[in-house]
């Protein structure tokens, strides 16, 4: 079976598996990788960029190598190759868990239980929930849904189309390392530099595809494109900026503004300033937009892989 068909069938099966099963409560492969990366960090950590580069190379390189070895083992069996691609896709995407967590918070806000929403917010993002009122929580959820649509779904599919199972596992490894050590805390400012920069590079194509598809799938395509063009570059993240701006325009809401992370206050530019304030109902709208973007991304990645295969054959 051709490699493009293996990816198409496997990635579709993996997304369906995520839709039907979500993430396992215990024994998630990404959690296992996180534990392994933490063990490597205990051995290698120094307040030095070079040691951080080594940490990133060992962990991300190990994930890519494991994917390449697994793909090599099953290369003579089309059914096994599809199954491996499906399992890898299911393991690295997280669209269903993202939607579930967002909706749990949305239901709490609809019931007027702000404290319950605050208690649940750390499951979705790193914001300080005590600093947020109901509208602030809703905005945080919409921003997290937008950003994680790229990180947890589209980016993985892009690299799966490019590199098969090694691409899927490598992207999730890089993204996980960034979440673990890529932030600018005193401990990780130097050591996490390589993971953060590699995550920026790996996330670049998926973020742009997410922004394009949000404009296509949203209710206001022109607003999405306008917000992306005018506001994305204002965001401190080169990848979250296009995604959040496009989602803001597509949904007709304002995102950005003052944020609080672990007691550290950040004043970010407003995205889509002409939009209205985020309300609780926008959480469900953002989730549905995220889901449409994920399935469209699968179609785009499958088509792109097929075209690339046709040109090389």
Structure in words:
The structure is a single chain. It is built from eleven helices and two strands, in the order ααααααααααββα. By secondary structure, the chain is mainly α. The protein has a two-stranded antiparallel sheet. β1 and β2 form a beta hairpin. The model has no long low-confidence stretch (mean pLDDT 93).
Mean pLDDT equals 93
Largest beta sheet: strand ordering: 1-2
Q: Would you tell me the structural class of the helices and strands?
A: mainly alpha
Total E-strand runs: 2
Give me the strand/helix succession: HHHHHHHHHHEEH
What would the principal axes of the Cα set say about the shape? globular
Low-confidence stretches: none
- Beta-strand content: under 5%
Please work out how many helical segments DSSP would assign.
11
Proportion of residues in helical segments: over 70%
Largest beta-sheet characterization: 2 strands, antiparallel
Rg is: 19 Å
Amino-to-carboxy terminus distance: 14 Å
């Amino acid at each position: 079976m051709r490699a493009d068909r293996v990816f198409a069938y496997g990635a579709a099966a993996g997304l369906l598996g995520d839709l039907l099963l979500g993430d396992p409560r215990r024994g998630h492969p990404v959690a296992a990788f996180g534990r392994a990366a933490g063990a490597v960090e205990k051995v290698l950590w120094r307040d030095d960029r070079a040691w951080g580069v080594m940490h990133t190379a060992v962990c991300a390189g190990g994930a890519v190598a494991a994917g390449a070895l697994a793909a090599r083992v099953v290369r003579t069996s089309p059914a096994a190759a599809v199954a491996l691609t499906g399992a890898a896709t299911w393991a690295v995407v997280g669209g269903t868990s993202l939607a579930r967590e967002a909706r749990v918070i949305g239901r709490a806000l609809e019931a007027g239980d702000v404290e319950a929403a605050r208690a649940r917010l750390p499951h979705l993002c790193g914001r300080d929930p005590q600093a947020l009122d109901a509208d602030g929580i809703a905005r945080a959820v919409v921003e997290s849904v937008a950003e994680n649509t790229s990180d947890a779904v589209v980016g993985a599919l892009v690299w799966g189309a490019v590199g098969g199972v090694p691409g899927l596992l490598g992207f999730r490894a890089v993204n996980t390392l960034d979440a673990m050590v890529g932030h600018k805390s005193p401990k990780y400012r130097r050591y996490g530099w390589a993971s953060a920069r590699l995550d920026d590079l790996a996330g670049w194509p998926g973020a742009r595809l997410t922004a394009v598809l949000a404009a296509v799938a949203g209710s206001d395509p022109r607003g999405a494109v306008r917000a992306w063009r005018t506001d994305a570059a204002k965001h401190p993240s080169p990848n979250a900026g296009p995604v959040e701006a496009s989602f803001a325009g597509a949904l007709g809401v304002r995102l950005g503004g003052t944020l609080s992370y672990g007691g550290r206050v950040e004043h970010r530019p407003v995205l889509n300033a002409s939009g209205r304030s985020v309300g609780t109902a926008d959480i469900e709208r953002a989730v549905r937009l995220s889901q449409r973007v994920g399935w469209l991304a699968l179609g785009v990645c499958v088509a792109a892989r097929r075209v690339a295969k046709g040109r090389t054959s």
